[in-house]
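Note to self: user wants both folds in one dump. Writing first protein now.
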Amino acid sequence: MAGGPTTPRLVIAAAEAGGAGVLAGGYKSAEALAAQLGEVRAAGVPFGVNLFAPNPVPVDPGEYDRYRNALQPEADRLGVDLTGIPVTEDDDAWRDKVDLLLADPVPLATFTFGLPDRAVIRALRAAGTVTGQTVTTAAEAEQATAAGVDLLVVQGAAAGGHSGTLSPDRLPVEKPLADLVREVAGVTRLPIVAAGGLTRGGDVADVLHAGAVAVMVGTVLLLAGESGASATHRAALGQAGPGQTVLTRAFTGRPARALRNAFTDRFTATAPAGYPALHHLTSPLRKAAAAAGDADRLHLWAGTGYPDATAEPAADILRRLSARL
């Protein structure tokens, strides 16, 4: 969970509970990631790292200007000026982070958003790192298998935050995660890690029965003591009734699932595609909203199972999820 929720403490807690935490490399400099890697390594636990592989969605300049102008009244409420923010099409320091993982290898590296070059995958594997790719369809699973990764993270549409789809111009198809796991298992022999909407022990058992060898969870840990979710995000999760998530491009220009709020209601239908340009455009507005306790203008990433998130140690949450296995 990039952007703050997944902390080194959460990664360590997951490992100490018998799992393997995955440190979020997205939205960090290579130097910041290296510092967090050092903290996790010092604990001597198994762990992984997730990177955003480049798969940009170019934004139409006219649509960008239109959207920026539409957002400015919202930003004005928080004292933020968006008028000087240019179109930014960076790659999240991709090469620097890959070089970091090659110089100081980690046990597991997974990729989201895009499929890395085969040379990158080969180099990481040669360094002793197990590699994994997030996929959202059987067709994407075939592409990742051909690219040479070691495992697949099969993400269903119920997942919170960004969809890992390799085709971000389209919203992910909503279907039960167990069905998606079966479809992917039908086209590849790679190990499958199931992700998306898994917040109860029965859900975990279902996807393992469908063919997954492990599961990955995020939303159910947002309220854990080790989570880095903001106080505004935590409060909104605790107050939202069931069935209140929406898939939206409004915050970043790429499909992501969040709690409905005034921002998603107003801008989901009109937000242009464009990642990471829209991410950079809305970032100062969102940071100001979090600091001000303004949940109506914040990206409240959450999967459909958010009502099951509880404020307790991560180890207790994870052990409960695995109790029926």
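First done. Writing the second protein, which came from a different request thread.
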Amino acid sequence: MAQTDTLARLEATVLSRRDADPASSYVAKLNARGLNKIAQKLGEEATETVIAALAEDRSALVGEAADLLFHLVILLSARDVPLAEVLAELDRREGMSGIAEKASRPS
């Protein structure tokens, strides 16, 4: 099964739980606490991912990376940004030098 299928299923799950009862859904609970809390949680997960990478702990890195992607999808959902839009941006950048891509951004 393609990884994009996994991400699409994750996005569908997050969307379906976004407005659920916060007592029964972590996604709903996080959304009820607001965008600042969602962003803070994403930052925490990013930090934990970096720590796992630097510790050279492969299984911890895999787990933290999964947490990071999960929380990123929650943040995107909270801002009504479809994952397809992010994937389209990655497709647009494919084959472009990272240096050239960054230089093409408006300042």
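Dump finished. Worth passing along: The CA atoms of residues 93 and 100 lie 10 Å apart.
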